[in-house]
Design brief:
Blueprint lengths: L1 H9 L1 H10 L3 H25 L1 H7 L4 H5 L3 H22 L4 H21 L4 H9 L1 H16 L1
Helix pairs in contact: 1-3, 3-6, 3-8, 6-7, 7-8, 7-9
Amino acid sequence: PQLALGIAFSCGIPMAFIEQTGQVGLLGWSLLLANLLWVVAYDTIYAIVDREDDLRVGIKSTAILFGEYDLKIIAALTISSLLILAIIGTKLGFNGYFCLSLCCALLQLGYQLWLCKDYDPNRTFRAFLSNNWLGAFVFIGVVLNYL
């Protein structure tokens, strides 16, 4: 389910590129991949909260698939997403504000993993909800780059 959600949430990226430029290009596909990785990561955090229910009813979530490596894979997926964004920002000549925003997003990931470390459902759900801040940091970096 996390991969399907990631694909659904990412499909707007190539559609917007085609509408605006007539092609998706490397930039569009790179943004799609960065977004897909982030969505799978944050929705896996949500799936951790529901892992026992998913096991009981037979849903094959990434939280079950990743097993004991779930938090490490979430970290790897999110870091990969941020790395792709950093490469894109470098190629586009984005300024230091964008770099700083990615560092803030990385710190936010650390906070999320800290919340999840004991798998307490309330703290893990808070980690999931805090992904709006991770996205906000990236967005703010893009905005500050263009100001």
